[in-house]
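All the exercises in this workshop are built on plain-text protein records. There is nothing in a record beyond a sequence line and a structure line. A learned vocabulary of local backbone shapes supplies the integers on the structure line. The question running through the whole workshop is how a given chain folds. Here is such a record, shown just as it appears in the course material:

***
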Amino acid sequence: MSRVINTASPGKTRNQRRRTIAEMLRHLTIKRQMDDETKDMVAAIILALRDIEQTTELTTDAWEKRNYFLKADRFRLEW
């Protein structure tokens, strides 16, 4: 059995989620009233933000295992 290679790095996932949020915000600025589509967009933004939080924790956990505490703290503050 061969190894499974994870091609979705945390940084790539964060960038994809940021682009998703930007696109949703662009569409939300056009909306004039609250409807089901608007609620779905807001829910998608919330889920994307949660994904970003998870990937930052994944990245900083790896750095903290190597005792790069200052680097991990700076990264958390940036995100």
Q: What stands out?
A: The chain has one domain: 10-78. DSSP finds three helices and no strands in the chain. The two ends are 38 Å apart (CA to CA).
